[in-house]
Design goal:
Layout (H helix, E strand, L loop, with lengths): L1 H12 L1 H28 L4 H16 L1 H10 L8 H20 L8 E3 L2 E3 L13 H31 L8 H24 L16 H4 L1 H17 L3 H4 L7 H11 L3 H18 L5 H8 L4 H25 L5 H24 L6 H4 L1 H24 L5 H26 L8 H6 L2 H21 L10 H13 L5 H24 L19 H7 L5
Antiparallel strand pairs: 1-2
Helix pairs in contact: 2-6, 2-7, 2-9, 3-6, 3-18, 3-22, 4-6, 4-18, 5-6, 5-9, 7-14, 12-17, 12-18, 12-20, 14-17, 15-17, 15-20, 17-18, 17-21, 18-22
Length: 534
């Protein structure tokens, strides 16, 4: 009996680490690993649809701020964490069960002798029309991830504060390590099991179907729910915690918008997110048709870039921790453009078309994104008012995800005259086709360069950040109209971006130029209105 109690106690002690392995490792990475083989390859959705798809999913992640509010302010059955973790995992379970039992449509391309026949009549031309239903199911999955992740983060923070000072941070380290292990397992599973010809791979006699694969994350989610119920104890960290009213939290959130230093950071985050999301809709098609990227390669590269991003963080901590934040951001964005430009150009114009060469710039991009996120977090640490650090952190990333929705919608509209959604462009592969695709990338790079001016909105280092914060605190308050204007424009951008992104999912509206299509006047009209099409 004592042995059983000891095992039970040890399981309770590792509950947070185990939940991170399930949540941020397996389920989160599995979700992202499936986007390319299922939506991009099997259903063969159009380029502007793929752009919109990722932005719509990121909006679900923005809901973490609301889940954090509810978890902090509205206990369920006397608990503030476990019920919300369970609700999130149940939402994931419902989505996975639906994906498991739902009959799969036929793939877009015909397959013969382990080869996809891209130059012949497609097997199922209506396959992209199935994307909307699957987008809704995946959105439910992502909402569940958002809910459980927000609450697990809160519980992890509470437990970390109880660690002895000399060991504080050990739990966070363990959660990051187990998350990376879980991510590796998830990406390898997707890469090897969904690498058949229908999914953009070359495994002829090894692998399973998409709906069969869904039983793997389904089983993991069931184990996560059981573990959350039996072995997660929040009373030891939350029993004497003073309840915070939701109304008070909302007031704190509104007051953040009145701090001009924090408002400038929000504007910076919004501009950078829009600029990074203004990507050419041709990206997924170039990757599929010209670079010939397989599903297994995508997932192996994801594992590699995660490791390289971690290495980049070590380099930043040791060499650039006290460097000028503005100069660092200018440097990394410049490196990103200088590395991506030759890769894109040589791939498009058939100088080098190789799936591994295509991902060279992703190595630099991984480091850049890690550094960008870390600098934002450093600024938040200096700016966040006492007692509402969590809200301050969640709000920034909510704004970033709103920016992504706006950016992808703008990219689809701005580049619609080039008709980058037409598969025939990439199969024909003419000089005009290559020039049109290359021009769309140059437009994207141009917006990235323009976005560099936004670095003036953030302080150059901790000292200036502290000065700005103290100056802001000494003033009576920011101007209310600044807050009203920013919130109004953000809401308008969120609604407009979401509607335009959703329009790409419907057959009747995705042809519209405002949604990124070539126009709805028929095939003859579309060809005549396209730039560099003939």
């Amino acid at each position: 009996m004592d042995r059983i109690k000891s095992v039970h106690k040890n399981l309770r002690g590792t509950s947070i680490v185990a939940l991170y392995f399930v949540q941020e490792g397996l389920l989160y990475r599995c979700f992202h690993g499936l986007s390319y083989p299922w939506f991009g390859q099997y259903l063969n959705i159009e380029g502007h649809q793929y752009n919109s798809l990722r932005s719509l999913f990121s909006l679900a992640w923005s809901m973490k701020i609301f889940f954090s509010f509810f978890s902090d302010s509205i206990p369920l059955f006397g608990y503030r964490r476990i019920p919300y973790i369970t609700l999130g995992l149940l939402a994931i379970l419902a989505a996975l069960a639906t994906l498991s039992f739902k009959p799969m449509p036929e793939p877009y391309y015909r397959t013969e002798n382990c080869t996809r026949l891209k130059n012949e009549e497609p097997l199922n031309p209506d396959a992209p029309n199935a994307a909307f239903v699957y987008t809704l199911i995946f959105f439910l999955w992502y909402c569940g991830l958002s809910c459980s992740d927000a609450v697990i983060d809160a519980l992890m923070t509470q437990r970390s504060k109880l660690e002895p000072e000399e060991k504080r941070g050990t739990l966070i380290s363990y959660t990051r390590i187990t998350s990376q292990i879980g991510a590796t397992v998830a990406l390898l599973s997707v890469g090897f099991l969904l690498n058949g010809p229908k999914y953009g791979g070359d495994f002829c006699h090894f692998g399973i179907e998409f709906n069969q694969f869904m039983w793997i994350p389904f089983s993991v989610t069931v184990l996560g729910i059981v573990y959350a119920f039996l072995y997660t104890n929040e009373k030891d960290v939350d029993d004497k915690k003073e309840e915070v009213q939701l109304k008070s939290r909302l007031k704190d959130l509104w007051l953040l918008f009145h701090r001009w230093n924090y408002l400038k950071l929000l504007v910076f985050a919004l501009i950078i997110a829009i600029q990074w999301s203004l990507r050419s809709p041709a990206g997924i098609k170039v990757q599929m048709h010209w670079a010939g990227v397989r599903t297994i390669t995508v997932n192996l590269v994801s594992i590699l870039t995660g490791l390289i991003g971690g290495l980049g963080m070590i380099i930043y901590l040791r060499c650039f921790l006290n460097s000028n934040w503005r100069l660092i951001l200018l440097l990394v964005v410049g490196i990103q453009i200088l590395t991506e430009l030759p890769v894109v150009t040589m791939t498009i114009f058939d100088v080098i078309r190789n799936e591994y060469f295509w991902f060279v710039d992703d190595v630099f991009d991984a480091v850049i994104r890690f550094w960008f996120s870390y600098i934002i977090e450093l600024v938040i640490v200096e700016y966040a008012p006492d007692g509402i650090e969590g809200i301050s952190y969640a709000l920034i990333w909510a704004i970033v995800n709103i920016g992504r929705a706006i950016g992808s919608a703008l990219a689809n509209f701005i580049m619609s005259p080039f008709c980058l959604t037409d598969n025939f462009r990439y199969v024909r592969d003419s000089t005009n086709d290559r020039t049109a695709v290359w021009t769309s990338y140059m437009i994207s790079f141009g917006f990235q360069i323009l976005g560099l001016f936004s670095v003036l909105l953030i302080p150059n280092q901790k000292k200036q950040a502290k000065e700005w914060r103290e100056q802001c605190e000494q003033e009576e308050s920011g101007k209310s109209w600044n807050a009203v204007v920013f919130v109004s424009l953000s809401i308008l951008g969120l609604v407009g971006g979401t509607v335009l992104n959703l329009m790409t999912m419907f057959e009747s509206t995705r042809c519209m130029m405002i949604a990124g299509g070539p126009g709805c006047g028929g095939a003859e009209f579309g060809a005549s209105s396209c730039i560099l099409y003939n």
